[in-house]
Amino acid sequence: MSWSLLFKRRNSAPVARERLQILLAHERSALGRSNLISLLREEILSAISRHVKVEPDKVQVKMDRGDAVSMLEIEVEIPNIAQDRALAG
Amino acid sequence: MANVVVVTSGKGGVGKTTSTAALGAALAQAGENVAVVDFDVGLRNLDLMLGAERRVVFDLINVVQGVVRLQQALIRDKRIDTLWLLPASQTRDKDALTDEGVARVIADLRTRFDWILCDSPAGIERGATLAMRHADGAIVVTNPEVSSVRDSDRIIGLLDAKTEKAERGERIAKHILITRFDPARANRGEMLSIADVMEILSLPLLGIIPESEEVLRASNLGAPVVLSNPGSAPSRAYADAARRLMGENVDMTVPSEKRGLFTKLFGRRAA
Fold first, then answer.
1. Do A19 and B186 touch (CB under 8 A)?
2. Which pTM value belongs to this model?
3. pLDDT in tens, B94-113
4. What stretches of A1-89 show up as alpha helix (H) in DSSP?
5. Neighboring chain B residues of A23 at a CB cutoff of 8 Å
């Protein structure tokens, strides 16, 4: 194994954590368990798509729970074409 | 007042039976009257973990069906006289368990013991739902690994929906017990950390059981790990977890093996 490969090998635990968070948010909503993340995701998606066209899977909502405060992270990918059109109109 | 606690996980092989035996023995050592009940009909193993496999005459199904009285099926541990086993049947299948029959047996156990630990079968089928049905509390055994965490999440959903307590609109007390944890790998980012699992499952932690060779050794010997090697890391972790179960405030640590200088220098680490 070369040195570059050795150093490029990323930690796998953060990947596991990320995959679980996304998967469980989905499964909890599918199984009818109230889940803030999936509710927010739906409402944010519908609010944004009133103005620009977004693919449902281009909206990522994450929540990091802390003791005192929690961090809500929203990532929305908007295609440039839609943005151009919105600017032109 | 008696406490009925289900030890469950969804996924198989994470340590439900090992944990039931160890926690049962630790509670009994603390002077509590404990019954451990094997709900894994057809695939019983709690008898093996307790080294009582040759003493099984009657089982849970016989009692549920009213063929024998509860006292006839209960097996007293040879080492701790406040620890009792109600074994599962090895020859019948889970359909022989009826909801009413299980309710009657649990009610009977409540009058005789301080703690009733129900060792659930893996899966989310009838056997697992019957094991959790009458519980006041649940211990969700989880390995720091994606499939185990996912299945634990699913079981938590069932605990909030399918238990008698949940149906009455009450909340069942749920705790996570993390087993097979390797602090060194978690520190290197190779294993989900305790914080990761806690955040994902958002339930209080009952204990952290470190990965250890002692657990297999205990199962080979047919003794709960807290009896086969009381000073070992997993035994101390289980003893702490049992004290938390009894309501004591115990600092959450991951016990490590006390290793001599020789093993520190030359010993191989447990795989």
1. no
2. 0.80
3. 788 899 999 999 999 999 99
4. 3-8, 13-30, 36-48, 80-88
5. 150
